Amino acid sequence: MSLPSDCGQHGGWCKRRGKVYRILAGILAFIILNLLIILIIWLALRPSKPKFYLQDASVYAFNVSSPDNLLSSTIQVTISTHNPNARVGIYYDRVDVFASYKYQQITPATTVPPFYQGQNDIDLWSPYLYAVSVPVAPHLAEAISQDQSSGFLLVHVKIEGRIRWKMGSWVSGHYDLFVTCPAFLSSQSGKGVGDLPVIKFQQISTCSVDV
């Protein structure tokens, strides 16, 4: 005897299966519609990356001890950030600031408290970057000494963080933030306390931003 396989003999089961399929199709259509709406809003608003500027760098100490090649420094940086978007806010959930010299990090990261930046807002940070007896490679210690003797140093202030975009009630997922700000410093030997070099910030610099 052959087994029945058509819906005519299994009407109840077929109806239940059809109902499940319709529910799943409705849920899928709802998800696709919402994703499409988000995509259209995103493409229409086109949020621009925040802009960063290094306004100042006050160097209170920047010395390398020999022969141990240990760097000690105290730098206060002033950074301004501008949200250029007229309809999009930015959540800064994590912001770490540190200094680097010739691609080597020379200070531990200083964390800026999380904050929200509204449309077209400008915010100013002035974190201190400290380094106490941080080991540096011998060639870097020599390069720092040579740059100080020549009267010019190029240090990069770097920012790494996590941000989210806010458009109305919708908030995006997290995006990685990478900012690099060149700090042009002049060094005048024997002008400071105890004949230590005086290091001065030269000019406001525009930072490169990757999101």
From TrEMBL:
Residues 79-181 form the Late embryogenesis abundant protein LEA-2 subgroup domain. GO terms for biological process: defense response to other organism. It holds the Pfam family LEA_2. Keywords: Membrane, Transmembrane, Transmembrane helix. It is a single-pass membrane protein. InterPro entries: LEA_2, NDR1-like. Its main location: membrane. This is NDR1/HIN1-like protein 1. It comes from Elaeis guineensis var. tenera (Oil palm). The lineage of its organism: Eukaryota, Viridiplantae, Streptophyta, Embryophyta, Tracheophyta.
